[in-house]
Amino acid sequence: MSLETISRIIKVQLPAYLKRLPLPETIGGFAKLTVSDWLRLLPLLGVLALLGYLTIRPFLPKKKKQKDSLINLKIQKENPKVVNEIDIEDLNSANVCYCRCWRSKTFPVCDKSHLKHNELTGDNVGPLILKKKIL
Asked: Residues in domain Iron-binding zinc finger CDGSH type (predicted)?
């Protein structure tokens, strides 16, 4: 887009567009606008809303990162760490640990991320351990 095109848009087309808009003289005049008048105003109102938002956005409060919160709210709260072991006959390896804290980098396999989570939050969540049942 050349500067001539931009200049023409700003100097000719934009003023012509604004003159054609059905802008009422008073605030009460907005109530008298028809549906087609409102539809013609929508692009202008959308641009003004976007510019307003972009203007105030730097001053809006930043979203805080969600803190780690408790995962286990009521199961075996009297225990320092909840670990369940299940014996399975048809398991290929001796032990398999599955994550229940949702923090594991190797999910669904436990990588002991629950230790840090428990330390930070005071939670007591631990892995699910599947053991090969010895007959």
From this structure: 81-120
